[in-house]
Amino acid sequence: MLVILSGLPGVGKTTVARRVSGVVGGVHLRIDTIESAMVDSGIVAAAGGWDSAPDAGYRVAYGLAADLLRAGHIVIADSVNPLQITRRAWMDVATGARALPLNVEVVCRDVECHRGRVEARTSDLEGLIVPTWRQVQDREYEPWEAPVLRVDTASGTEKAADEIVAAIRARFTSDP
């Protein structure tokens, strides 16, 4: 199964992904980790910056996810995933690997809570610069066209993670 997490920075995607992967024995695949390593390696600078290769981190993640899915792992893909084109690409990965897809949008419906998280956030990855609240608000984020499970982290990430785990278990028991 490919669990495709989406959501604005600071809503709790990584915290949720870590919990879900621990409970279901899945692999947490985080775009921020990939992109941080790419910056650290010098490949982004050599390419002329992210403007020259804006989707490079996602493309690496798609390849890794496909390999992990073909090896039989549950993959929890953790990224902002703001555009229809990236959402379709994740679905193509699932289809190509013959995996069940589960689209999940992680939101924080309490705007002040979300803002507080963003403003208090520090990076846990070398070279990763976390966005400001203004950057989060100004970020392009297209509405969903496909069915999506929405989980709200306003009252904490544990309940949201439990909802995703329940959806994963339901998919495995309902699909042949």
Question: Can you describe this structure?
Answer:
With 176 residues, the chain is an alpha/beta fold. It has one domain: P-loop containing nucleotide triphosphate hydrolases (Rossmann fold, 3-Layer(aba) Sandwich). The protein has eight helices and five strands, in the order βαβαααβαβααβα. The protein has a five-stranded parallel sheet with strand order 2-3-1-4-5, sandwiched between helices. Helix 1 packs across helix 8, helix 2 crosses helix 4 and helix 4 runs parallel beside helix 5. The radius of gyration is 16 Å and the shape is globular. The two termini are 13 Å apart. The model has no long low-confidence stretch (mean pLDDT 94).
List the helices and strands and how they pair.
Layout: E1 2-6, H1 13-24, E2 27-30, H2 31-41, H3 43-47, H4 56-70, E3 75-78, H5 84-96, E4 101-107, H6 111-120, H7 133-138, E5 149-152, H8 157-174
Helix pairs in contact: 1-8, 2-4, 4-5
Protein name: AAA family ATPase
Organism: Mycolicibacterium komossense
List keywords for this structure.
Rossmann fold; 176 residues; 5-stranded parallel beta sheet; 51% helix; alpha/beta
Mean pLDDT: 94
Q: The biggest beta sheet, please?
A: 5 strands, parallel
Spell out the helices and strands N to C: EHEHHHEHEHHEH
Strand order within the widest beta sheet: 2-3-1-4-5
Q: Strand share of the residues? A: 5-15%
Whole-number count of domains:
1
Which stretches are low in confidence, meaning pLDDT under 50 for 5 or more residues running? none
**Radius of gyration, in angstroms, nearest whole number:** 16 Å
CATH topology: Rossmann fold
What is the approximate shape?
A: globular
Broad CATH class: Alpha Beta
CATH architecture: 3-Layer(aba) Sandwich
Organism: Mycolicibacterium komossense
InterPro entries: P-loop_NTPase (IPR027417)
Protein name: AAA family ATPase
